[in-house]
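Q: I'm building a small set of examples for a reading group on sequence design. Run inverse folding on the following structure and report the sequence directly after it, with nothing in between.
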């Protein structure tokens, strides 16, 4: 064993002996096992596809409903874009309604349905992948559609509640207390909203308490992303707007959405690791820990596609998790 490997194995043994580092390593490794970056990229794509038609539809509907009241239109659009730091300012300048255009309204509705239903389906797929639900046990199209509609209802209610709470804080406090109070209230609301969304997206056999750790992690992180996201994406837009124009906005928007998607997937992984005690995990193999074996067994069983098929797993250390085979067939 060379000095580098010896040092790494000493670090591995140390993290396995302490719960905090072991959970953190377990979450990161589970994220990699589930191809979390690909799941986050899918969420980002459908989020982007849904956002632009949503803004077009919002602006067009406001053009019909609030015709002759540009101040009211601007207030609603500004409120909708408030959660997009820097990017919101760019979108506010570039996304406009087509006044009186029925074609724009139809295009906006169709684009919104495609993107919104797409992101809801992808989020459900991501939660099923994170919890390693076997394909044969995953819900069909109509139950997933019902969950999607429920998700949109919860998100819409959450946004309205957040807007009302922010207005209440602004009217009762001023200065630094108002800003601090708004951040705390936003973190609490985001935590509750994450818990509700995880409940909708996660298989029903998973209890509420299993989704609380990830919600407690994701809520404050989303608040930080909303409040200080400008710092995180400013380097993407620095000097780029003058050269690339609106394309710089697209780069910044995709960066912001990808960060939000990664927070979502990591929070879900935190729920799984804590609920199933998928830690400690080994940094160097062999040997495999019990947490490693449980994760590998779950990933294998996740590939069951038919009721007639059963996937089991064996490990060389003698602890039986089963063997991969189909009913009526040999090994």
């Amino acid at each position: 064993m060379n000095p580098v490997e010896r040092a790494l194995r000493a670090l591995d043994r140390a993290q396995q002996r302490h719960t905090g580092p072991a959970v953190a390593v377990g979450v990161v490794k589970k994220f990699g096992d589930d191809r979390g970056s690909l799941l986050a990229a899918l969420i980002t794509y459908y989020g982007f596809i849904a956002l632009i038609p949503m803004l077009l539809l919002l602006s067009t509907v406001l053009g019909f409903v609030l015709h002759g009241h540009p101040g009211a239109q601007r207030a609603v659009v500004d409120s909708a874009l408030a959660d997009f730091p820097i990017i919101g300012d760019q979108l506010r300048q570039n996304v406009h309604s087509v006044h009186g255009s029925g074609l724009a309204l139809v295009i906006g509705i169709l684009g919104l349905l495609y993107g919104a239903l797409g992101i809801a389906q992808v989020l459900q797929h991501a939660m099923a992948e994170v919890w390693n639900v076997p394909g044969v046990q995953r819900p069909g199209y109509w139950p997933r559609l019902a969950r999607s509609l429920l998700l949109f209802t919860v998100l819409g209610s959450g946004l309205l509640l957040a807007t009302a709470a922010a207005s209440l804080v602004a009217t009762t406090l001023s200065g630094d207390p108002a800003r601090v109070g708004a951040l705390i209230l936003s973190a609490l609301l985001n935590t509750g909203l994450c818990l509700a969304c995880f409940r909708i997206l996660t298989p029903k056999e998973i209890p509420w308490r299993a989704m609380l750790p990830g919600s407690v992690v994701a809520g404050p992180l989303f608040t930080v992303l909303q409040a200080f996201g400008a710092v995180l994406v400013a380097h993407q837009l620095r000097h780029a707007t003058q050269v690339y124009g609106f394309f710089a906005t697209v780069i910044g928007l995709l960066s912001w959405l990808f960060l939000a998607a990664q927070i979502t997937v990591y929070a879900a992984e935190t729920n799984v690791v804590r609920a199933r005690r998928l830690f400690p995990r080994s940094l160097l193999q062999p040997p495999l820990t019990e947490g490693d074996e449980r994760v590998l067994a779950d990933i294998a069983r996740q590939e069951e596609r038919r009721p007639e098929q059963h996937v089991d797993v064996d490990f060389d250390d003698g602890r039986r998790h089963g063997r991969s085979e189909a009913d009526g067939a040999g090994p």
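Residues 322-331 have pLDDT under 50 and may be disordered.
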